[in-house]
Amino acid sequence: MRCNYKILVLIAGCLALSACKKEKTQTARSPELTVNAIRLKAQDIPLSFEYPARAQGAKEVEVRARVGGILLKRNYTEGTRVNAGDVLFEIDPAQYKVALSKAKAQLAQSKAQLLSAQQDWNRISTLFKQRIVSEKSKDDAKSALDSAQAAVQMAQAQVDEAQLNLDYTLVTAPVSGITSLETQSEGSLISASGNESLLTHITQIDPIYVIFSASEGEIYSLTSMSEKGLIKTPYTGGDIKAKVKFTSGDIYAQPGDINFINPTIDESTGTIKLRAVFPNPQGRIKPGQFVRLVMEGLIRLNAIVVPQEAVMQGANGSFVYKVNDNGIVEVADITTGLSTSDGGWIVDEGLAPGDVVITSGIMKVRVGMPVKTNIVDEQPAAEAGEDL
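The structure assignment produced for this chain is given below.
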């Protein structure tokens, strides 16, 4: 009886051991860790870049007096808009009217002398043909006629100069824009040279410029991607569009164009200066105003985007964990480029469409570990950009 009991105990122990081994084998083959992941796909992403910027008038002109005299009148309100050709100041014209009258009188006298010289020449040239007068008399008459003609030309030039100086007593706006404070008040004696000739400034605000700087590396990266055919623009002519964002967060209604890129690099900052031009008929953007410049109009073609939380940093740089076709975790070293507006990274090297990248539970996974993946929704179209 005792022998049968021992046999039963031994059989039961063997069965228990076999069940335990089977359970461990099933546990090893059936991973318990489930991670969220995305299946990568290539997509075209609009690029957007944001920079600190400052507005500047398209033209900033000094209005100066071109003749001296007493400043009689100012015909505009300081700080208001004026149009090109508007009379801004009036300088006492009295002395210039007198000078013009004298010049006209001299012109009349010279014309009378020319008429007399012409008559003498006509008469003497006829007599010379009849051999009545000498050749010297003929030469003297011709010389007198030439001198009279030159005197008329000189007198006419003096009239033109006097008329010009008289016209300059009305100081007009060379461009349309906003005026500054006057620098000379009515009754002041104005000079045509030096600091005393400056009367005011005019700043043209329509259109208006917005000046900003981009890093050398960023411009080089964009140029390199363009050369590789990874960037295109949807606008006709390949223009790069720009928007202005105010400090309040509001976006200026009218878009502008990038119309200038400085060919040289600022050695002290390593940046390149760019300029955008905007229509500004209502004067909404003020010269000297600090704004944010949003640059748009480029599309990154066939971009691979991964969420920021999926990117890790190691001794060799950035990397992500991906899952191969057998459900095993692998590491992929990557090179990231631009960031996207939703916090992702564009991967320039290291990943391909169809790769499965882990986005959660990253701290629990190890290379070579089998995992179960929960593929989240397809990647949304992201907008890439930089906020500098």
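Interim note for the steering committee: Helices lie at 2-29, 94-129, 135-167, 216-227. The first strand starts at residue 34 and ends at 39.
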